[in-house]
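Async update (no meeting this week)

Hi team, since we skipped the sync, here's where things stand on the single-chain job. The sequence we agreed to prioritize is pasted below, unchanged from the tracker. I ran it this morning and attached the output directly underneath so nobody has to dig for it. Comments welcome in thread, and please keep replies under the output.
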Amino acid sequence: MPDPRPAAPRSKRGRLTRSADFERVFRKGRSYGNRHLVLHLFPRDDADEARDPRVGLSVSRRVGGSVERNLVKRLLREAMTEHVDRFRSVDLVLVARPDALAVAERDGLSGIAEVLRELVEKASPAVAAPDATS
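Output:
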């Protein structure tokens, strides 16, 4: 059985960690949602420089206990690596809804990746990187 962990750990530099950053994305950003996830986007002030996006995750206790929440977070981080090149100079917050756990347990990474792909396609083309539209 192949190792489900990523080959190299992602740095914490590309993560949102401060409450103020999360609050700014929630209050001023745009959101796109479906039954399983909500994606909040907010362009960063340093938009003159093309920088990698910062990603934050929010998985509440409504999703499940700590084991289930950590499963959903691990799968979301891994699935997001596929889409990170589509965004530049934005802060993203992924909010897992309770139905995300059912997808994670039933379909694993492929299910979460499919749900996330739908949201990324729904997201505004204005924040997508110009070279990633092909």
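Quick observations from my side:
The longest helix spans residues 99-122.
Residues 53 and 84 are 7 Å apart (CA to CA).
Reply here if anything looks off.
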